[in-house]
Amino acid sequence: MVEAGALIDAARDRRGWQNVNVSFLQDLLNSVAEQGRQYLPWAQGEDEDLLTLAKALVSGRGEASGVAIAREILDLWRTRSADDRRAFYRFLAEGLEPEPKAVKAMAEAYLASPTPLSLARLQNAVESPRQEFFRRLNLAPGATATIVEMRRDILRELPSMPQLKNIDQDLRHLLVSWFNRGFLVLRRIDWNTPAVVLEKIIAYEAVHEIKGWTDLRRRLEPSDRRCFAFFHPSLVDEPLIFVEVALMNEIPDAIEPVLAAPLKPGKPTTPTTAVFYSISNCQEGLKSISFGHFLIKQVVEELARELPSLTTYVTLSPVPGFARWLNRAMSDGKAAEITPQERASLAGLSDDAWMNDPALADRLEAPILTMAAKYLLSGKSDDGRPVDPVARFHLGNGARLDRINWPADRSPRGLREAHGLMVNYRYEIKEIEANHEAFANEGRVVASRQVRNLVKSPDRLAVPQRLLGAALEGPVSLSGAKSK
Prior knowledge:
- The structure is a single chain.
- The protein is α+β, with helices and mostly antiparallel strands.
- The protein folds into three domains: 24-178, Butyryl-CoA Dehydrogenase, subunit A, domain 3; 182-315, Aminopeptidase (3-Layer(aba) Sandwich); 318-478, Aminopeptidase (3-Layer(aba) Sandwich), CATH 3.40.630.
- The chain has 21 helices and ten strands.
- Strand 4 (273-281), helix 14 and strand 5 form a beta-alpha-beta unit.
- Helix 8 crosses helix 10 and helix 17 (358-378) packs across helix 21.
């Protein structure tokens, strides 16, 4: 086996990677910050603390020396204790609110005379002063990355400090603009990518753990594997999101053969199917700021240009909420989602005894696939969208729910979250926009006839689904109504 150290060395300093050169801009901002140090609060005899600096940044003084003050705030924030940070956040949450009297006056003026000028004044009055605070904070060298870290910290504090919700809302509003698709750069990640990035791919993989450098090489180096990531100029060598792709000649129904595929030298046979088997968001501080739909669409375009033989684009996706949903239905004697017969037929599923009992696995296949179809087609959250987060993502991107596979993931996580279930979502290039519109505007889930029949005619599942073949294929639209 190749030693890990040798693999790391082989990954370093490879050609073909274009680094973003920001040294000139960083030097310029640092120079500006040094020039502004004379305006820092303690240069005027005030105490050195985060709250004093924050007040100075949003004052008139902050307009003159914003870069210097912003840099000091970020430097102090990195070194302060959790209690000091919480006090800082409380000030931002409670001390930088819009002025109610000004909002009322501008609203009345706009209602009396709805002109563009009165609207602009109303918008200025309504906008939280926190947004201007974070804009000025972002003037400091390297500020964007630290502000993303700050939001990650705030998100972790939210359960015990709900008053921080307004800070999170303001930050999200700004970060959506700062991380606009126009600023994102798509790069292919391969075995020639610098080790500093490869190490982060290993660390950020959130779906199927990468077990060291040999495992990473297996996912990157073979000619039938691809990996693409989005980067932002302000976060050098920090991927925002990445997707791993296997080039195949069939739609896989289990993850183990994909992950365990041996290294393949040379060119692959002409692939017909691109399988997106792992999508990982990397920055916790950018939570709820979606890049995935842009990533999928652009990667499809890149692959289509590179490999004209590709005709099928599918995922092999986890179903992270299924076990929790099914366990609730099983324990609730009045749950509408499950019949008494189905409840009885699923006995033996929760203890994973089926993994060593082929006969039990065959008996479980029909009811578990039926329940999975009910979950994916009818399970809804309070906002009326599918309760499963992966389903929301792919259906919202315009994919169709194509096939449900069981057993497909026997890993501890796959068993814990989905009893070994996985799903294929299919991206038909000509149907993506129509599917997206149906889901976004009407709440409809677009699914194959094969998936629909799992709910419509569960009795036919006496034959395992994997043997039904392609006879049941074909797209249909299903209502998002809840089960009765």
